[in-house]
Design a protein that fits this description.
27 strands, conserved putative lor/sdh protein from methanococcus maripaludis s2 fold, alpha+beta, five-stranded mixed β-sheet, single chain, 5 helices, 31% helix, 416 residues, OB fold (Dihydrolipoamide Acetyltransferase, E2P), six-stranded antiparallel beta barrel
Amino acid sequence: MLTYLVATSTFSESLLADGTVEAVNSRTLVCPESDEYNIKFLIDDGTLVKAGDTVCILENKQLVDQYENAIKNLELSKAEYNKIQADLALDLALLEAQVKNNEAQTSITNLDSAQLQYASPTQKKITELELKIAQIQKEKFEHKLSAVKRINQFEIRKAELRIRQNENNVKRWKEQLLQLVLLTPIDGLAMRSISWVTGNKVIEGETAYPPMPLIEIPDLSLMRLAFSVSETEYKRIKVGQKVEYTFDAMPGNSAQGSITYRSSVGRELSRNSKVKLFDMQASIDTAAVLPGAGLSARARIIITQIPDTIVVPTVAIFDEDSTKVVFVKHGNRYNKQEIITAESSQKETIVAAGLQPGDVLALAHPKASQVGKFIALPADVKQKLSKLIRTNSNGTDSVSPSEVNSAALPQQPITD
């Protein structure tokens, strides 16, 4: 018969979860706004980078076409500007030549007018009319010259405006093209982000949508663990519970922390799945060696920890006639002893009343010939405990150890 020696110890109930180490603070490089892109180049996951290093190059054919069209339009607008200036300069030169020609003709007529005193009346009249015509043409040319200069200035301003507009377009498209080359702003460890499309880490050749994260540069001075749990485990995990860590890639290294975040909404395990997972985060407060981002870790979440209490294997407790009993070794036989239980886990249970340190329990039900007398708990103990009985998460009757201690109940049983 396998037996167990009763002693006071620390009752500990925990859950195990696997997760990934990540930085609490990190710089995330995301897909630029306004369009979808193809990932042409992506730095290898876990590469050490310096500020200014290229970590990702995106491409978008439509954006390149728009940039090239903007350059062509700029060149055309500049050519048009030069043509307008040349045409206007020619028109202005012709008009100025006509003005000078008119001035010359007027001068010649004025010279002829000095001889009018010897001319006939008819000749005098013709000369006066020629002078008036020359004056009218002079005023006409001057008005036309002034108008042409104003028109020239207007046409030149329009051409300059088109050039500025096209220059702005070229600048805008160039800036967008420059945004397709992602440079790290800080030194650190470049980590590929999780793709919105596949749910795995992004890869070269994949399509990226704004503002999808592409690369993360974590701050390696402050780390945490991200993990997911089922709905059953989620109900038992609370913020502030202690966590202990081990790392597959760092044998011998251990760390401690606590639960810092639990999501309020679960996500489907897969499409149309009824199983939900809840995201959790836990801090890494102390560690022999601080783990790096991206390492896998196993977390042991301490659900309950009660020191200095009587803890026995759950297999040593039996239900008989709505009573919990254990079989305590007495000589060559085993007495059937009534007990009251408190917190329990899959392997261990706290005994709040009915056992003492030093008792030896059978780990299997003895044969009927090996069972001695039945030892019941005192009636006053049961009466006090009956007010403290509650139903635990497993649906079994139990009582809180703190409640038992506050009632100052003895654990010494009596014999029927």
